[in-house]
Structures are given as structure tokens and as C-alpha cells.
Amino acid sequence: MSQNIKKVVIVGGGTAGWMAAVSMSTLIGRDLEIVLVESDDIGTVGVGEATIPTFFALHQLLKINEAEFLSEVQGTIKLGISFENWKNKGEDYIHAFGYTGKSCWAAGFQHFWLKGKGLGFSEEYSCYSPELMAARQHKFGHLKQNQLNYAYHIDASLYAKYLRRLAERQGVVRQEGKVVEVNQTASGNIQDVVLESGLVIDGQLFIDCSGFSGLLIDKVLRVGFEDWSHWLPCDSAVAVQTESVSPPIPYTRSIARDCGWQWRIPLQSRVGNGLVFSSKYLSDDEAKTTLFNNLEGRALTEPKVIKFRTGQRSKQWNKNCIALGLAGGFLEPLESTSIHLIQRGIIRLMQMFPQTEITNADRDEFNRQMSNEYEFIRDFIIMHYHVTERDDTAFWHYCRNMEIPESLDHRIRLFKESGRVFQAEGDVFGENSWTQVMLGQGLMPEQYHPIVDMMSDPELQHFLKSIKASVDNVVGQLPAHQAFLNAYCPAKLAE
User: Fold this and answer.
1) Crossing angle of helices 360-386 and 406-418, rounded to 10°
2) Do 269 and 186 fall within a single domain?
3) Residue 275 C-beta-side C-alpha neighbours within 13 Å
4) How far apart are alpha carbons 289 and 334 in whole angstroms?
5) Which of 403, 430, 489, 493 could form a Cys-Cys staple with 71, CB 3.0–4.6 A?
6) Are 171 and 187 within one domain?
7) CATH code at 15?
8) Are residues 170 and 278 part of one domain?
9) Pseudo-torsion of CA 111, 117, 123, 129, nearest 10°?
10) What is the pLDDT of residue 41?
11) Residue 303 lies in a domain
């Protein structure tokens, strides 16, 4: 007779491990024993410190107080990402959260904007987005009506510590130590892990949060890896923290360089910086020089070089082991999707949590959904590199001219030829995201939807003016971002 799942072992801490621990212990853990194995001697990667709005869903489920959380992680508000030098050197645009303008049942707002542009009375596409205009003016606040869509910039290490405190309150047991041996059952399931101290920890379900090493999913279960480096050639990053030299802005900066791109993520206490690059076109030392030549403020840490391979595991759930975070795959942090993918894996696991034995159907469905989501994000990130007018370095020449997945090629052709964007099931990026980035990268549709012609030209002009006035009204009510942080969630600084 099969036994109910009573014990879960999480191998690895960091953001992925502690997110899994606090989620399961809070939401489904009444009769569940949860042990997390973590070694203080093993550092976390911590490349990205930015999130997207889907982050709210988990925090709402966990009943996390926003002001307390932001204070604990020294966080700031993120309304979007500024992409600089991506289309061409010296040009920029913002991919903002939320919605631009007003759509109708048959056509997105871009169709109305396109006709207005042809008639000469559309303003920049960005002017019809309250989040984008607030970002440009460095403003943010909570409004009773017309709430903005937003996410956060956070200190990932402080976030993991915050989650740990919440998880331990819920009964999660943290076991310090390194895993030196993994034993399997006759069927190939993981039976237990053995620590350096000799302690044996058994379990019925194992979650691999061991980062790039994939200690369980790769080294033990030998699950294959789908390599996407031919589409995403960047394979390295160098990261450093700097002092703040100005008030934090409410958006992430992504600045394209000759062989990759640089991030700037403002926190209340410091700025996170890094350069994502391809080792084929740039050495580690050259990357460090490029980054340090483009820093603002004094460096607080030594530069840290991280090597990675873009792609995903062929199965993220195999046997009785689920890979989360970097153990399951990696997509560079260009659109801040790392924490989102961790969260989606956790939610899906809890939706499919086995009562007794693990079924093949559950595993297959979990893997199908996760794979689809990784591929949608992959395509979105590839588009930033491929849809560009840059051809000034060997790196950008390769990206502009490389073959791309058929799924992405179809989306690009559809938008170019008709202005249409359809959100696929499981795609975290909606119509507005795809539209903003494609327009920002220089892709202009050749025609608009005929339903727009149901409006007379004066009606269309009034329609566009009224949206712009509404955006201006919303943004006009907002305080400065720094003033909001000071009043709502001042950083809890380390003593």
C-alpha cells in the first residue's frame, strides 16, 4: 500500500530553496515535514535582483506585508526596463509593465496608434502608458484608483534570509552541511542524501535547488540539457556592487555594449551592476574593464565572474526529484524572469502535489508546462538581440543575422505584416510587452486592423488625446519615487 507524501527534502538554499520552503510550509505543509540542506560554504549566484509583476501572486498567497518586505530587502520599485543602445547606439526605449492605451475586442491599441501616426497626430507610443511615463519622471505611489502595475528591485541575499525566517517559523528545518553522497532505490528514485558529517537525510520527494551544479537532477539522475547558446551566445557575467550616487530610479537599466549588455539595478542602499557577455567575443579581463569603465559610484565588492549556459533541462521533474531555479535551466536576466520561473515551478508543484505515489501523467504535464514557459521567455529574449539595426561589432552581426526559432520568426512576421500579437497560453509576456519591445527595437507594422477605420479621423484624434490626458492625470498624482520609499518602506540597514 502506497504511503502519503510526508517528507520533502530541499537540497540548496538561496532564493529558490527558501521560496520553495516557505511556500510549501505555509500553503500545503500542515502534515508535511520539510528539511532544507544548505551549506554556508557554498555561495549563491545572485545575478539578478529584479522581479516582474507576477511576483505579487506568491506574496499574496503567503500574506507577506509589502512594506515590511521592501524594508527588509532594501528594495525599490520597478516599473519596467530601460533598453539603451539595443536598437542603435544612442537610442533607447522602456519596456514598461501594465497596458498601453486602450484596446478593443478585435485589435490592440497599437493599431489605433499606427493609424494616428500615419495621420500625424499620434504622440510617441510610450506617452500612452502611465507606468512608462511615471518611470521617466522617477515617480511612484499607491493610488486609490488607477493603481500602477509594478514589481521590485531587491537584494537577493537579504530576500533569502527573510524567507528563511518565515519558513522556520512554519516548522521548516534547516540542516547545515554539504551533500557528499546520494543513494537511490532500485527503481532509480532518490532515497536519501548523505552529508559531510555522516548525517543521512531520507525523503519521499526531493527538490533540487543546488544551482548550476544540478546536484540531483544532473549528477545523479543524468537528465539531459537543451542547449540554447546558438540563439543566446552570452555565456558569462561579471557582477559588482557600487555606492549610490543619486536617488534610486523606478526602473532597471539594460545598456547594450559591444559584446553583450550591462545592468544597473538600484536598491535603497546600493546599486547592483553587471555585464553579461559572450566569451567568444570578450575575455574576462576585457569584460571587467568594460564594466568598471561604465560604473557610477565607488565599487563596494570585488568583481565576480559567473559562467553559465543558456537552456533548460529536458525534464525538470524526473523520478521523485523536481529541479527549481538554476538547477532547472537558465535564461540570462535580461527581462528579470529568473525568480518568476522559480515561482511558477513552485506553484505548479503545489498544484500537482502527489497524495501518495507520483504519477507519470503529473510529471509529464509539469514538464510540458515548464518547458513551454521557458521557450516563450527564450523567444522573447532572443528577439531583443535579433530585431536590431546594430551591425557594428562581430557580436551584433551574429545576433542580427542568426537563424532563430520558427516560433519567434512567426511572431515577428505576424507583427511586421499586420501589427498583430497573440498571447499564447503560458506566455508570461502579454501583447503590450511584445509590442513595446518590437516597436522599441525598430520593427514597425506595415498595416493596421481595419476595425480602426470605424472611427472617423476626428474621433480617433479625440480618443488618443483623452488617453494621453488620463495618463498625465495619473502620473501627476504620484510622489517622487524616493519620497515614496522614505515614507512607506525605508530600508532596514544592517547594524
Assistant:
1) 50
2) no
3) 26
4) 21
5) 489
6) yes
7) 3.50.50.60
8) no
9) 10
10) 79
11) yes
Collect contacts of 398-402 with beta carbons under 8 A, ≥24 apart. 398/233, 399/233, 402/230, 402/231
Work out whether the CA dihedral 211, 62, 364, 353 comes out positive or negative: positive
> pTM above the 0.85 mark?
yes
Whether 317 and 396 share a structural domain: no
- Check residue 434 and give its pLDDT: 98
Nearest to 210 by CA among 37, 48, 11, 21: 11
The burial of 328, by beta-carbon neighbours within 10 Å (0-12 exposed, 13-18 middle, 19 or more buried), is given as buried
Helix (H) or strand (E) holding 493: none
Q: Is residue 187 part of a domain?
A: yes
Mean pLDDT, each 10-residue run in order, the chain (495 residues): 82 96 94 94 66 92 96 97 98 98 96 98 97 98 94 94 96 97 97 97 97 96 97 97 96 98 96 97 98 96 94 98 97 94 96 90 97 97 98 98 98 98 91 98 97 98 98 98 98 74
Q: Known catalytic residues?
A: 78
pLDDT at 43: 66
| Structural domain contains residue 297 | yes
Count other C-beta atoms under 10 Å from residue 30's C-beta.
9
Q: How many domains does the structure of the chain reveal?
A: 2
At 46 the pLDDT is 52
Residues 242 and 294 in one domain: yes
Instruction: Count how many Cα atoms sit within 13 Å of the Cα of residue 297 in the half-sphere of its side chain.
Output: 19
Residue 294, all three cell numbers: 561604465
113 within 8 A of 128, measured Cβ to Cβ: yes
Neighbours of 141 (CB within 10 A): 17
